[in-house]
TrEMBL record, chain A:
GO terms for molecular function: peptide transmembrane transporter activity. Residues 1-21 form the signal peptide. This is Peptide ABC transporter substrate-binding protein. It comes from Planobispora rosea. One of its GO terms (biological process) is peptide transport. GO terms for cellular component: ATP-binding cassette (ABC) transporter complex; periplasmic space. Keywords: Signal. Residues 112-502 form the Solute-binding protein family domain. InterPro entries: Peptide/Ni-bd (IPR030678), SBP_5 (IPR039424), SBP_5_dom (IPR000914). Pfam families: SBP_bac_5. The keyword Signal applies.
TrEMBL record, chain B:
InterPro entries: BPD_transp_1_N, MetI-like, MetI-like_sf. It comes from Planobispora rosea. It comes from the Bacteria. The keyword Cell division does not apply. This is ABC transporter permease.
Amino acid sequence: MRKTKALALAALGTALTMGLAACGGTAGGGGNNTGAGNTAGTGTSAAKHNDGYTKVVNPSDAKGGTLKFAYSDEPDSMDPGNTYYAFNWNFTRLYARPLLTYAAAPGEAGLKLVPDLAEGLGEASEDGLTWTYKIKKGIKYDDGTEVKAADVKYAIARSNFTEELTDGPKYFAEYLDAGDYKGPYKDKNLDNFKGVETPDDYTVVFKLKKPFSEFDFLVANPQSAPVPQAKDTGLEYEKTVASTGPYKIESYEVGKQFNLVKNENWDPATDTTRKQLPDRIEVQMKQSGEDIDQRLLAGQVHVDLGGTGVQPAARAKIVADPKLKDSTDNPYTPFNRYAMMSTKVAPFDNIDCRKAVQYATDQVATQAPWGGPLGGDIGSTLMTPTTVGYQQYDLFPNGADNKGDLAKAKEHLAACGQPNGFETNIAVRGDRVKEVQVAEALQASLDRVGIKATIKKYPSGDWSAQYAGKPDFVHQNKLGIMIAGWGADWPSGFGFLSQIVDGRFIKPSGNYNMMELNDPAVNDLLDKGIQTTDPAERNKIWAEVDKKVMESAAFLPFVYEKTLIFRPSSLTNVYVHPAYGMYDYTWLGVQQ
Amino acid sequence: MVAFIVRRVIAAVLMLVIVSVATFAIFFLIPRALGQTPEGMASRYVGRDATPEAIQGAVKRLHLDDPLIVQYGRFAKGIVAGQDYSLGPRKAECPAPCFGFSFNNNQPVWPTLLDRLPATISLAIGAAVIWVVAGVSIGVISALKRGSALDRAAMTVALAGVSLPIYFTGLVSLALFAYTLGIFPGGGSYTPITTNPVMWFQALVLPWITLAFLYAALYARLTRAGMLETMGEDYIRTARAKGLKERTVVTKHALRATLTPILTIFGLDLGLLLGGAVLTESTFSIPGIGKLVIDAIRGNDLPVVLGVTLFAAFFIVLANLIVDILYAVVDPRVRLS
């Protein structure tokens, strides 16, 4: 799971029907700038709230200028092979081209995988154990040398099989049949890496341990961007990444400033998903979050790199001003915010006790800490509306006003042998203010039916390793309910569900299936789904898994998280890319 | 005199060693005593969902499984002799004084501190000039015009200055002067003096004034109180009786006596600020020592926190040392004691 946000499907329902197909998202824009009201900071006056969600706002092919990003922190790394930050999977595409990427379009069209470095999508063998990609000929690094298949192989080896590059995901290490390969820093001979083969300079063959029908999604992550072995400087490579994208790194002062300039060796004819409009791109890091919002509103900064939306103070100002609100978009993040009830902690080992909690919860109260409706829609499933395969349903409707069905809750309390309620503990990450407020709201909700919950706060740094993610600790401390959140790395049911519902992933530490639900039917469905090659069939299976887990009543959804992002009027070609849940950073331009 | 200075320098070095041991214990020993495992610490410095093997790799790479005494020994040795770190295909040299290697951004701490120091010095010295000139002047005028409307107004402003936190005055000044009136550039506009002196000056005016507002208020109140006390002394009456001009009485006799304790406090304040003006640097996004340490604390980047703590302690100890020496120069009795 990526650390902040990973992907988001553009509008379902109403938003989608508003004509995302006509958005012009894949075309090159309309030549001249069509935006109006170019006063910095007032936003695009012609555009309305959420326009960037369904179409390209302010389309333009005008070149020049400096695109300015600001970020309140610093990313784990600017090395495409060593980053798990969601915005960096979007941003690094400016200088790194993976084998595949997502189509440049708002709405559902943007979730389609398209070739990037590769000529086409992967070709799976009949047994599903090998995936072959042909890479385009003539793609060059910024120094003019040509990209070769061995560079892709090396990129996978360094990012997944070394002790030093620890920040990115390790999916390739998990799925590739690489034996006991030690990684390229310990074993310089790349021939010893058997998980990937390169029969010629333009063919990359991945060898898998077991069939994995969603392998194309894995190679769309930036770790498949090529790295020449001779240029790898390990942890310092983030300063000198060999660029294949429209920009190359000019300088990187870690934690301060990251500058990109145009890459003259990037050929737009080989690239259908990126533009090269600004002359320069500058990123300021470690900036005050509140100040970034002020600078955005004043037009001094174009984009908050994190893509997590404005802070509460700016949000209040924007909501109160219709003109400012027209310059914002409110997309879903990939995150579902929820609680899990441990099926191994009494009395939640009884399904009726779990159902009592489902019905007693005031979901309006648990929505409020996220910022009300602008912060997220009330949830009723595991998968979010932005996950392919999502189906809307509600097994535990808790009143027309979502404030709880107390009569039903009491019915289930009686059925579980606790008619007067019971005592339990709610575990929460104490340094996460919103989650603590959710725990308090839940505590108040449950108190209405006699369930007395005590809130136990734990540090987020060790949350997974030492506390809620450690079943022994959960049992010993009788943590009945744990407040958590989850977002997928790629927009499919498997990407979302596998880590949190597969009973075989219950680990002694670092466990995300805090329900400790180990249902063979669920596990079998996950196996069946990942071996199903037909996407439509596969999505049906993910929906089935979702429903089976909800039937256990151990998963208590709060909100499908949303965020409020501001688009200054000086920004061109702005749209929310559904795969990242934020603006497509490779399309942006600035007005002169 | 030489013996006195040598004694004080040795005491200062000992103090730094004690600070380093205490800081190391706070960040490494106490968490370990409270049950923190090396794996638990390492899990903060690897990606989410890291495998146990990846966490073990980080434990080894960061030497978190070594006994604490060994870890401290390595840290202390690094300051004296430097050390190497693995970056993957090659090693990175961290020459002495190596304050360690950042867990988060894989940079040696010492060059990072040196990189951040000019911004902190620029901020601290500029603000210091403003607050000393403004604070002392206002204090003197207030004392001489005691009870007047001017005195009351100055002291009311001073009270506000002492009471208002920098993150409030800073954000308000940015909103007003940078984003509404556009007189000064906004946050994040700090430019090194060597790159562009004009932009350096423009970007620092608001932070200087914001920081100086707090200190000037304090110094104005101190100066006023000192002046009022001094002006009542017998030797001031004597000076007046001798027929000296009032200006001479005030500047040469009263103010000089008042300034002695003010200068002592100034030395300590400046030393403290050179260790990082956390709030001002954070509010205005100035990449100085203070911003570095607050970010390191948020990111659990222990080597950086340790490095900055020692760095800040160095400046405070240095300021104390200078003050002690200056006392000895001014008052020979200090040496005897």
